[in-house]
Amino acid sequence: xxxxxxxxxxxxxxxxxxxxxxxxxxxxxxxxxxxxxxxxxxxxxxxxxxxxxxxxxxxxxxxxxxxxxxxxxxxxxxxxxxxxxxxxxxxxxxxxxxxxxxxxxxxxxxxxxxxxxxxxxxxxxxxxxxxxxxxxxxxxxxxxxxxxxxxxxxxxxxxxxxxxxxxxxxxxxxxxxxxxxxxxxxxxxxxxxxxxxxxxxxxxxxxxxxxxxxxxxxxxxxxxxxxxxxxxxxxxxxxxxxxxxxxxxxxxxxxxxxxxxxxxxxxxxxxxxxxxxxxxxxxxxxxxxxxxxxxxxxxxxxxxxxxxxxxxxxxxxxxxxxxxxxxxxxxxxxxxxxxxxxxxxxxxxxxxxxxx
Length: 356
What we know:
Elements: H1 2-23, E1 26-28, H2 30-40, E2 51-57, H3 59-65, E3 72-79, E4 84-94, H4 97-102, E5 108-111, E6 127-131, H5 138-157, E7 164-173, E8 179-188, H6 191-198, E9 200-202, H7 215-227, E10 241-246, E11 255-258, H8 295-318, H9 324-341, H10 346-351
Parallel strand pairs: 1-4, 2-7
Antiparallel strand pairs: 2-3, 3-4, 4-5, 5-6, 6-8, 7-8, 9-10, 10-11
Helix pairs in contact: 5-8, 7-8, 8-9
């Protein structure tokens, strides 16, 4: 009887401590957080659930000095769940040639050196890229979400692609009496992390020709870019393409990896305009920039895209964070590619007419 009473008291005490623990959110600082954070989220890019964090910094000063690309101090608070948040002192600065000029809040770097975020895959990472909402209007949140989806679509196509993590960011502007706003953003996989994942290194050469990259991968990439309406990339100059070379086994030749999809017809931002020499009126008009190949090669890649159609559409249909209007626009735009590709003159007119 005495043993049962002691056991009941022990169980009651444990329940009390558990309830007390859950009832009061914890803000854990750098020196205390490592073990808890690692247990909560081991891999930053191994999770498709949106991450929630707060950035506290002088946004007013950031906007005034964004062209200088100077780091400024900030506080990053990662919210793992309703009861656990972790605070870090970091630095940030603006990035991106066009968006730095156009956006009131352009994409930015987070310098997380020595911050110990608690994610295994970020342990040795110094900087991470954040794509922000650019301007206040709601449509810019949709632009961020659609650009994120463009990366996720290419993840389906190839492992030689940037992984991304969606984030809901609460901004606290210390330059304006701690004014609070909240918007969507996403984080790109750092290059040094990709190098480890793929056992590869990035090539810093702007004189590469299309013939230097792997034929199968560039052909697949070119049709994908056509599908999402991207005519703003090139191997030479590495314009919106990163080029890697593998150390170990894998595809032969250099491998192109696309990024920056805000100028695509799929995202369809108000500021995106097509290249002057392309002869198209809008970025929603598709223009093929791939290499000239025989019909058989094109047919193989087109069939691959057909095989991926259901997965593409499922990704877009199941994405719950975008407005219904914008979701329908993305679905209709991808469907319009498949309508084009099913015509008997698709290769001769749409591909061979502008191939390089």
